[in-house]
Amino acid sequence: MTQNVVQSVDHVALLPAYLAAGTAVLVLVTDLVLARSRATLAVAALGAVATAVGAALVGAGDERRTFCAAADCSYVFGGRAALVGALFALLTLGVLGLSGGHLRAGRAPVGEYCFLLACSMTGGVVLGAAGDLITLIVALETLTLPLYVLVGLRRGSLASAEAAVTFFVVSVVATTVSLLGAALLYAVTGELHLGRLGALLAERQELHDLPLTAAAGALLLLGLAFKVAAVPFHAWAPATYDGAPLPVAAYLSTASKLGGVVALLAVVSAAIPADLTGPVLALLAVLTMTVGNLVALRQWRTVRLLAWSSVAQAGYILAPLGALAAGRTGEARAGAYAAALAYAVFFVLLELAAFAGVTALRPADADGGALDELRGAARRHPWLGAGLGLALIGLAGLPPGLAGLFAKVTVVRSLLGGGSGWLALVVAINAVIGLAYYLRLAASLYAVPAPGTPAPAAGAARPVAVVLAVATVAAVVVGFAPQLVLDLAGG
Amino acid sequence: MTFGQFLLVAVLAVPALGAVAVVATPADRAARLVGTVAAGLTLLAALPLAAGDRGWFAWSGTAPAVRPWHQLDLPWVPGLELRFHLGVDGISYPLVVLTALLTLLCCAYSLYRVPAGGSGRTLVALLLVIEVGILGTFLALDLVLFFLFFEVVLLPMYAVIAGWGGEDRRRAARKFVLYTLFGSVLLLVGVYVVVSAAGTADIVALTGGGGLSRGTQLFAFTLLALAFAVKSPLWPLHSWLPDAHTQAPTVGSVVLAGVLLKMGTYGLIRVAVGVAPEGARWAAPVLGVLAVAAILVGALVCLAQTELKRLIAYSSVGHMGFVLLGVATLTSTGIQAALIGNVAHGVITGLLFFLAGAVKDRTHTGALAELSGLRETAPRLAGLLGFAAIASLGLPGLAGFWGEAFAVIAAIEVGGPLWTTLGVLAAVGGALTAAYFLRLLRQVTHGRPSPAVGRLAPTLAGGELTAWAPLVLLALAIGLAPALVLGIAEAPVNALVEVLP
């Protein structure tokens, strides 16, 4: 393969990544020069908005490719990458909004906190556009690395340090496993570009049938499964979420999980043939949703409950991918990828709203606390309580949380369209189990508080309430017009 | 937009906006009044739906099996095959009117009395949301839309039971919501089995099988029938019902028994039988056996009941058994019996729960043993209870008779050893029904007044009479002139039966 020494780089395609990285640098500089936490936060927020807008604008045009070797490109910015990039930027913005109480309590340095979040956002934006395995894994690591620090950034909290170490160790192992998988795939095929890998494995049956190929694909997938916290690689998630500061837990369960999903989607949809990944992912999906839901039933701490429920939700996201085995039509496959991404979009929206609700109803800089500490919260703060309640019902997938209902419908439809009726039934039964604990939490918001409960939390800080309101409104809008999300995810 | 289409939208929009208005009204009593007005307007919008052009393509050779009087078909979510497709015909119209009427009566009753537990405002708003869900289910002509409205009802009903119910309300509410969600998710899977095989979710196009393969139809019917059997409920999936009914507040029980259960039987006729007729034919014997088992089990359990609301709840299991037996025969007579049985059960059991609620509110007990001698101290209440009980046991001339009698007749008409046996057993169940209602009357109205009953004043409140009178009159009217329901249901039922294999 010959290659020009000087590549022409399409800077427009890279604009969202520049904006995200620029945000990180600017935050650092602002913190150094001005040393005003308000200014730092404002810069980070503006940068996130600019990144979202940039991603949307670039994505509105034709697909742009750069860093190409012959026909294969390492950076492909199309509609789906734009959706992912904009989502990451908006989630970062949302988490920044939730962070006020945490930062004001002085438990974390503002400049570093915002810088790390912006770095993580950069990883997410690049991740959506990654066209080869190296870019993919590096982007995913850029997304995850700052989070180790963010999780442990809570000064004077042993739980936070423990959570950070757990997360760090598990995540590093996962990355190593992914890298090993990628390296083995390279050894088999001599290729790293996702599209070329897929084409090669489809063309050359002898490569496809090599046991090493299957092993390499499995390793790559399992490494990524750690990132989405799929059972049996989930054990880090509840401990990490519960130890982390609330806004960081929100980021972990939305943006970080989305990152894992996007990486999995990229690998599954382009690189590795579906007949190799399908059975593995189907098994992972069934285990993930069932174990996640059953364990969530027995949780008594709010964040742990949300953590286990988000494990279960990862199972619903994986399910459409698991439905793919050999011989399915291209249309069914495209539908399954779109369904998984659409579910992820609905999910991160509702999950962000849920975390915003919990943050709003808890005292500033408190952790999630026990479920009983939220008892009767909706009676004291009807609007905030309604927002959290709606998010929880949406996660359970019932009206009036129409967004969540349509998310479930999308998954079930794609499963039945792909001929996996049994998997659809598993999803359906799991939805019933899920309702049991979501409803327990939602109903306790409206219950009469037990006598002798601690003094009610002060009203939420305004940015938190705004994040909750915006996420709720967005969830209601896509609840009535789910086609918006379906179109974006399909495009 | 034609007048009919306007009415279809109004029937759903008025209660929905009404619920919002109720929540937005700060004063509790004013809010309840607003809710009652909204429910009244909904009934006014529902009644003229009958004034449609009924025969517009009845004579053409290729008429579909569902011929709505009015319909409205708008795209909503093409990616999920979901269209906002509403329509009304002779099968759904009586249920639509019944729903609108019962909700109005419940709202009006809430003006008179709010059960303990929460604000009356929220209760009325929830009743209106439930009404939207139920009406939407009856009006939907799109499978996915049907599922959507089917789900809308779940949580508001949960909230009504959990918020305003009796002692053990949380457990009962949770059982209700989890059980019925189990049914709903099966419905979701069943709906998309059909939709992904047929490529459309249009009930009009799908009725009659719509070219689905036999295997698909059997699978789809199994899922759909299970879903509706939970909702109806069919023995042995009924166990959520007695708890939910016993614990729910009076208005909750009335809506639950009066119309919510009908979503199951209506769905069975319109969706399960209509869309997967081969599956229905295949599963009919099983359905028939279970229905008769429900009749017998319901009656036997009732004979041993010692609690008033629980007895009425179990009697619902038996009555819905007759309705399901009618559907299972898959004959025109049977399905018509099911439809009139549905409406009659809604009217009579609604009335029974109102009366049971009134008795419980006055005496603070539901135990039959502590309720003797009601006739002595509260003769009007006892008289009405007697009337409702006799209507419910199926005395000719009252509404309950037609559904039960014709379900039995339909089963005998189908013939063969199985169906004849089922018919005979169902008739025995009918006799048992009479036995337990007479036992109820003997225990409650006759005898010496118990201490709890002795304190009662003989009068009935105006609010109570307002809520009950329409039901009493309807029970009489449907009993004397079953053509009120059957006249409009006959044509669509015949059209449906024609397309059955």
Could you describe the 3D structure shown?
The complex is a heterodimer of chains A (491) and B (501). Chain A is mostly helical. Chain A is 76% helix and 2% strand. Chain A is built from 21 helices and 2 strands. In chain A, strands 1-2 form a two-stranded antiparallel sheet. The mean pLDDT of chain A is 86. With 501 residues, chain B is mainly α. A two-stranded antiparallel sheet of chain B has the order 1-2. The longest helix of chain B is centred in the C-terminal third of the chain and has 32 residues. The two termini of chain B are 37 Å apart. The interface between A and B is medium-sized, with 31 and 32 residues.
Short description:
The complex is a heterodimer of chains A (491) and B (501). With 491 residues, chain A is mainly α.
Looking at this protein, list some descriptive labels.
heterodimer, A: two-stranded antiparallel ribbon, 21 helices, 2 strands, 76% helix, globular, B: 501 residues, mainly alpha, 3% strand
Question: Which helices and strands occur, and which strands form pairs?
Answer:
The complex is a heterodimer of chains A (about 500) and B (about 500).
Chain A: H1 11-33, H2 37-60, E1 64-69, E2 72-77, H3 79-98, H4 100-104, H5 110-129, H6 133-152, H7 158-189, H8 194-203, H9 205-209, H10 211-227, H11 236-243, H12 246-271, H13 274-296, H14 302-322, H15 330-361, H16 377-380, H17 382-396, H18 402-417, H19 421-446, H20 462-480, H21 483-490
Antiparallel strand pairs in A: 1-2
Chain B: H1 3-24, H2 28-46, E1 70-77, E2 82-88, H3 93-112, H4 120-139, H5 143-152, H6 154-164, H7 169-198, H8 203-206, H9 214-231, H10 240-247, H11 250-275, H12 277-303, H13 308-329, H14 332-363, H15 374-377, H16 379-392, H17 400-414, H18 416-445, H19 451-454, H20 462-480, H21 483-498
Antiparallel strand pairs in B: 1-2
Strand order of the largest sheet of chain A: 1-2
Most extensive interface: pair and counts? Answer: A-B, 31 and 32 residues
In N-to-C order, the SSE pattern of chain B is HHEEHHHHHHHHHHHHHHHHHHH
The count of DSSP E runs of length 2 or more, i.e. the number of strands of chain B, is 2
Distance between the termini of chain A: 32 Å
- Quote the distance from N terminus to C terminus of chain B: 37 Å
> Can you summarize the main beta sheet of chain A?
2 strands, antiparallel
What oligomeric assembly is this protein in?
Answer: heterodimer
Helix content of chain B: over 70%
Uncertain segments of chain B are none
Low-confidence stretches of chain A: none
Class of secondary structure makeup of chain B: mainly alpha
